[in-house]
Records
---
Amino acid sequence: MKRVFEEISDDEWENHSFKPSRVFNKNPNPPPPIESFAFASQTHSALSDHSSDDCVEIQRLDHDSNLEDHDVEPEDAGPVNRARRFIVDDDEDDEEEDVKDGDETGFEEVFDVESSEEEELQEDDVVGKALQKCAKISAELRKELYGSSGASCERYAEVEASSVRIVTQNDIDVACGVVDSDFQPVLKPYQLVGVNFLLLLQRRGIGGAILADEMGLGKTIQAITYLTLLKHLKNDPGPHLIVCPASLLENWERELKKWCPSFSVLQYHGAARAAYSKELSSLSKAGLPPPFNVLLVCYSLFERHSVQQKDDRKILKRWHWSCVLMDEAHALKDKNSYRWKNLMSVARNAKQRLMLTGTPLQNDLHELWSMLEFMMPDLFATEDVDLKKLLNAEDRELIGRMKSILGPFILRRLKSDVMQQLVPKIQRVEYVIMEKQQENAYKEAIEEYRAISRARIAKLSASDLNNIVGIIPRRQISNYFVQFRKIANHPLLVRQIYDDDDVVRFAKRLHSMGVFECTLDRVVAELKNYSDFSIHQLLLRYEITGGKGTLSDEHVMLSAKCQALAELLPSLKRSGHRVLIFSQWTSMLDILEWTLDVIGVTYRRLDGSTQVTERQNIVDDFNNDTSIFACLLSTRAGGQGLNLTGADTVVIHDMDFNPQIDRQAEDRCHRIGQTRPVTIYRLVTKGTVDENVYEIAKRKLTLDAAVLESGMDVGNGHDTSEKTMGQILSSLLMG
Ligand SMILES: Nc1ncnc2c1ncn2[C@@H]1O[C@H](COP(=O)(O)OP(=O)(O)OP(=O)(O)O)[C@@H](O)[C@H]1O
């Protein structure tokens, strides 16, 4: 049988929300979620309904658009080339953005002094200038913190609680009103330091701070305590705006009620949004104060250009926020993104922008800089300068300078620093070996793409031949790479079982049943882009038999990773362990559901398509009901912020290029409240691009350690040079 490796678009794979295809008939019995080529038209229509006046710039795709909950975000490392326009709100409230931090906070007092040294700096040394200004504030803060011994101290993590003490546990007891309540909030010593750090910055009039403690050390609680203390000590009851991923809205509301019962909190999302929008709009228009201390919203409010979201943002801009708090603030790592710009238009007027993230450095220094610019826009503004060029990850001197200067604005404690009693985390990489069928599929894909590359090479001049990047369009490189990753994960994710004749036969049946509202040719073309698994789902749904028909349980066990799970999971279950299984792809989660059914274990599932209101219930169910053995999660929607300490084992089914995404996932169960040692299994398919992804991830972790943690020096300790997808493919296809 001829195996078919159709060109797929990277949108199809990377934007794996698998919305029903636009050629499906809108029948009352909608088809199963399947892969589709609808994205291109969505992008088009999303752009076409904006007036051209709104479009201020054209940028490459924001990789993080929709990051928080929809699972439609592209893979981090993919050099996706879709052009995308970013539109900044252009409404009547924009004048308010001109208010500067310094007006409100005394910020200027600290850094608005131009030094002669600074004038000597090259005009274009924006990074140097910013760091120099930053160094002055940093010195002031250090003096306040450590007195004359300040020079030697760089990090609050190394400071005793007593030396930065503005408040003690007693003050917190009073502020939280524990006298009248059964709940006794006791901060851990390092959390007390964290709260004092925030108060100190606030006292010095610094407009921003990043609390970057490792995941699960209680950033939420420190931030809430800080807001409570603002009310108690500074008579500042807000309003505060808290922005978080959708999965965490419920958790924030719960923790706010528990730790600060006196605050009135409004969750502005879903049904609550519909109920309150009119009231909030008229209150804000009338210049009246908001009817809450804290408004909870999610990032998606800043990502779209719908009339509803624009109206919501207008409401938010009319109020003057005391603290705008961003949870999982690495969501703001791209200053060119729609999300960054729209949220900034609301947050700029706030007295303070407080960012919480356990993984502040995601990929490169310029991403960290985007966060810094968000935190203190006047100080770190770089305007149109290309930060990617300026912030070279290999520039050891710059890394060293940033580390020492940023110390006072970023508080980061590691679990190893502060919680010796926290259970150990054991990392295991499981190399799995493909059996014949999967291996053949992989090899055939390589051969097919190699042939295409060679055909192109034949047409090119010698100077173009050094790298595959010059031979194959970048978008195609991403497609090829994704195709290899699919096969390495599960061969059912490509089409190789159902051949073209099968597809034509199924297309005719489906067309005659009225499933698609388009020509037969179009249906055939659509189905040719489907994976075996998608076709199988379609056949199941419409009960189409004949020909090859639906797939069997044996097919689901055709991947090396599923076979590994079939061995691993029952033995973990027998030993009383409970497991979180993460995948980046919802289609892979579908296959994993089938796999777990075949293995015979109970599970829950949470991904971007799970109702926001349902997510916390799933988390609670899993944590409380020990008869549920596993929880299947998409890395994006389920990897951040959730407390899943009911599990003690994590399986990363398919790694992300960005290791921080996987780190976030690991720490869903390695956190306060965990009592058993935690084991992380990473599945890597031997002899495939999986191994390259793993190497790149390791390389990136070294950079993180070099910038944000002490002791390590970039340049040492990493023996793997970073390979781009293009380089990887070059060696694969041209070697
Ligand atoms: N002092 C404390 N006393 C009791 N429970 C605590 C304390 N601090 C944190 N916790 C609990 O520990 C868990 C982890 O805290 P939290 O979710 O705030 O961590 P985090 O640093 O925000 O993690 P992430 O980066 O993953 O979002 C929560 O269940 C929280 O209620």
---
Amino acid sequence: MDLLTEDQIAQGLQRLDGWERENQSNAIRRTVRMPDFLSGISLVASVAHAAEEAGHHPDIDIRYNRITFHQTTHAAGGVTEADMEMAARIDDLVSGVQAG
Ligand SMILES: C[C@H](O)[C@H](O)[C@H]1CNC2=NC(N)=NC(=O)C2=N1
């Protein structure tokens, strides 16, 4: 899959909710704060199932109730359309459960 240009990434971010460019790891990321640890883990489980379905997987950092999703295409070495699609699926799942 083709890498997106920086302009394409910037345009894609405008259609997503709370995602930002992460230059160090050539990814996009979103941090979500959940009410507590276990609701964060439930969100991660929902995202994990969606990722399996899509065949495309976020890197996930869990710190108590704060979950950061990083999306990059390892095989391409950067951000692709598959990352934008997975980010949108994560947004849908977060919208269903998020407290703030
Ligand atoms: C064979 C399989 O499709 C690949 O290993 C997929 C799996 N999920 C993946 N997820 C992400 N984020 N990047 C990849 O390059 C990737 N590769």
